[in-house]
Amino acid sequence: MGRAGAALWGRRARRRWVHLVLGGALLMPYWLLASVVLSPFTETGGPFGGSVAAQFAAYALALPPAAVTAFFPLARPLSVAAARALCGVPAERYADGPAASRTARARTACWFTLHVALGGLVAGASLALPPFALVTMALPFSAELRASAAAAFWGLDDPWWVVLGVPAGLLMLVGLAVASAGAGALLARQAPVLLGPTPADRLAAAERRAAELAVRNRLARELHDSVGHALSAVTLQAGAARRVVDAPEPDLVFVREALTAIEETTRRTVAELDAVLGLLRRDDPDADAAADGAAAGPGLEALDALLAHSGLRVVRDPAAGPAGPLPERVSREAYRIVQEGLSNALRHGGAAPVALRLRAADGELEVTMENPLTGRAPVVRPGGGRGLRGVAERAALLGGSAVSGPARDGTVWRLSVRLPLAGGRR
């Protein structure tokens, strides 16, 4: 009994009733217009004149123009806002934004028509039926009321109403509650179907999520490569400087160079970190603009400064190197790949020298880095282990490839990356 009462008069039922009454209010302008159109064909003119049949004819005539107006794109967000607040359906089951496709507009029109159609009936019954039910319930207690002209008009002057007045009135009120609850439940079932996302909406949402994920991955790679390399280089330089200072005869020149390298590395990294954090502060970043902005860091033109303060001895192949300017995007990605390769060499090879070769030929840039495998335990830093995966992602974004692993019978570690030059012009 308690559950039945809650279904008929509970908070959710009351909110759905309000939603239905709102639909009746939205139908009113269309109904008034239809009544005016039909007034010349009824016995009494005016929107409130005529028989009950004329009123229902105006009601039926009002629904088609209501459906037509719901084809406007902004009808969906307005309907969704009302349904979210009053229908008791989880908010995530509704679509967001104006209806962009023909299917979405047709669904919205169906919803709006159903809403105003049921709302007009429930709102009209809510206005007329409670007073009539109260009068019916009062018949057994008032002879004057039973003898009135209104009672005679509605056939309530029959003696049986003395017995049936109270239960009939209560039955009318319960019937109104049942009808309202049923109409509200019907709207709640149809709301996700008619106001939910269409396949086109789901595709657009998936594309937005993919773009946002691409931007997040891009920022993560930038932070990992820039900050991760800096931490590895600074750790190595600081450790070497400490050991030299603690030596019986400290080499102050070496310590000064190590501190200078630490200073230059941290300064460069702070500048790169500010650039990336600036993207995170943007109010509404666009995926492509954010990706380009995040990549607007140093390119191969800054490679000499990177190698000079990397904490490693880097041997470059003098016979190799780009013959001319590279596409900006390829240059930036190549810089980050070299940076991650140096960071990886620092962690696994310590101070062992690194061989670097850059060669642009046959429409692609080849980056090859090799360092001896010393067998020493790598320097572990929190959050590490994603560098080589980031290198592969950078290469894949340009349509290239990355291969890494032991080479030369396991004596060296080789990182080989190929970047199509055409990939930087897209």
UniProtKB/TrEMBL annotation:
<keyword id="KW-0902">Two-component regulatory system</keyword>
<keyword id="KW-0808">Transferase</keyword>
<dbReference type="Pfam" id="PF07730">
    <property type="entry name" value="HisKA_3"/>
</dbReference>
<keyword id="KW-0067">ATP-binding</keyword>
<dbReference type="GO" id="GO:0005524">
    <property type="term" value="F:ATP binding"/>
</dbReference>
<feature type="transmembrane region" description="Helical">
    <location>
        <begin position="20"/>
        <end position="41"/>
    </location>
</feature>
<keyword id="KW-0812">Transmembrane</keyword>
<dbReference type="InterPro" id="IPR036890">
    <property type="entry name" value="HATPase_C_sf"/>
</dbReference>
<keyword id="KW-1133">Transmembrane helix</keyword>
<dbReference type="GO" id="GO:0046983">
    <property type="term" value="F:protein dimerization activity"/>
</dbReference>
<keyword id="KW-0472">Membrane</keyword>
<feature type="transmembrane region" description="Helical">
    <location>
        <begin position="53"/>
        <end position="74"/>
    </location>
</feature>
<dbReference type="InterPro" id="IPR050482">
    <property type="entry name" value="Sensor_HK_TwoCompSys"/>
</dbReference>
<dbReference type="GO" id="GO:0016020">
    <property type="term" value="C:membrane"/>
</dbReference>
<dbReference type="InterPro" id="IPR011712">
    <property type="entry name" value="Sig_transdc_His_kin_sub3_dim/P"/>
</dbReference>
<protein>
    <recommendedName>
        <fullName>histidine kinase</fullName>
        <ecNumber>2.7.13.3</ecNumber>
    </recommendedName>
</protein>
<feature type="domain" description="Signal transduction histidine kinase subgroup 3 dimerisation and phosphoacceptor">
    <location>
        <begin position="216"/>
        <end position="283"/>
    </location>
</feature>
<keyword id="KW-0418">Kinase</keyword>
<keyword id="KW-0597">Phosphoprotein</keyword>
<dbReference type="GO" id="GO:0000155">
    <property type="term" value="F:phosphorelay sensor kinase activity"/>
</dbReference>
<feature type="transmembrane region" description="Helical">
    <location>
        <begin position="159"/>
        <end position="188"/>
    </location>
</feature>
<feature type="transmembrane region" description="Helical">
    <location>
        <begin position="111"/>
        <end position="139"/>
    </location>
</feature>
<keyword id="KW-0547">Nucleotide-binding</keyword>
